[in-house]
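Batch job 17 of 40 flagged for manual review because the log was empty.
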Amino acid sequence: SRTRACTEMVNIEIPRHCTISPSSFGETPNLTINHDAPVDLDSTNAFEGPEKLLEVWFAKSPESLPACTAAKGLKVVPPQVWEEMLDLVNCKVLSAVESEQVDAYLLSESSMFVFPHKLILKTCGTTTLLRGLPKILEIAALVAKFPHCLRNSVEDTSVVAAPYRVFYSRKNFLFPNRQRGPHRSWREEVKSLDGLFRGGSAYMIGKMNGEHWYLYLTQPNTMLTPPATPNRGDGATKILEIPPTKSLVMDHVKEVGQGQDETLELMMTDLDPENSKQFYLDHASAVAEDRYSQKVHKACSDGRLHLGEIGSTNLHKVGSDEVRVCDDSIDVFSNTSLDNALYGLDDELTFPQELSLEGHALGTVVSECSGLSDVYPTSKYPDSRIDAYLFTPCGFSANGVVPSPNRGTSTHYFTVHVTPEPHCSYASFETNVPASQTGRETADIIQQVVGIFKPMRFTVTLFEGQAGPENE
């Protein structure tokens, strides 16, 4: 079964122009960057941090794809096809990390992950995520060859695949009046989903007049809503107690996947203002230039020491012969100033342009300096890859692809998005790396992430897949 618990704690192309990393080979994730999408991209007015999160499963697992489906399932879909779908959502691809088992797309507004059997789409701001859902069903049918049917009543979509399960969730918006249809209200979102799927259930957890979280999900082997469906009511939302009772969970949340399947999500608000400065471009640029300067000066210093050692070495043995290679009286820096050797003066040091502009270079700096790259460190996951981006004048997004330390078993992901402005500060962290694989308790991961962002309030949600009824 797949169960979800939720708690709130207070105070405690790929466009035509792209580059591919030459270091990517074998099972190491492969990075592709869209250099066109960031043009005129500015996060100044992107104040709505809380994301809309959609998961569409077309099979229980990569191993249980229908016989008629393409061998790699959804991963056979070309990037440009996904881009057409994302145009309906109103976001762009910034870059992508490809791996054998999952492709991670970093978007102008959050992230998308494509597995053989499922798609995860997470978007913030005023994106229209649910407008892309019919297109996702069509792509799964026509390109990935999942079992499908005719469906003339779904907007302009004539052929759609019937998903195995669908999950849609989000936290309450900070600025709901700025949203566009069908995201102006939860009622409107439920109506949109009910128009596609039969038997979906809608829930709300939390205070109606405070922090709360919404969830919509379908039963296994989801059935599409037939054309011309009679009036099905007003999409009533059930209010859940915290914690939800076991019987309610087991009645409405059934088996989703096989093996280790869990998803942890943290939604953090009221971030510490001083700590949040690291997610501003000016601050990150200053940190990057300081680090760059230190590395250059260290390289110069190491070079002097190395050359000095050569100067103090009089004899080298070559076979049985001793050969004099250097004289102590020779000044190895005779043609330069010892005070200004190479980059001796700061005002002569030229910094790379990318250290002062939004993009992946500063995103990497922030990922390392903030501690995010230490959540799943390369010392334990040597093939992992983080694709990070820092926006103008502030804001941060990152996707991580984390292959299992045991090659050939599975590849997982994590994603981070930050809106640091004090009046609307928000950060999210999501991962499906199993706790059993990290050797750490889930609470330890939560504590580490919360320590990075230092929020006043945060909400935790956890999906856990179990092998069978005996473990429920």
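Reviewer: the log was empty due to a logging misconfiguration, but the result itself is present. The first strand starts at residue 2 and ends at 10. Unflagging and moving on to job 18.
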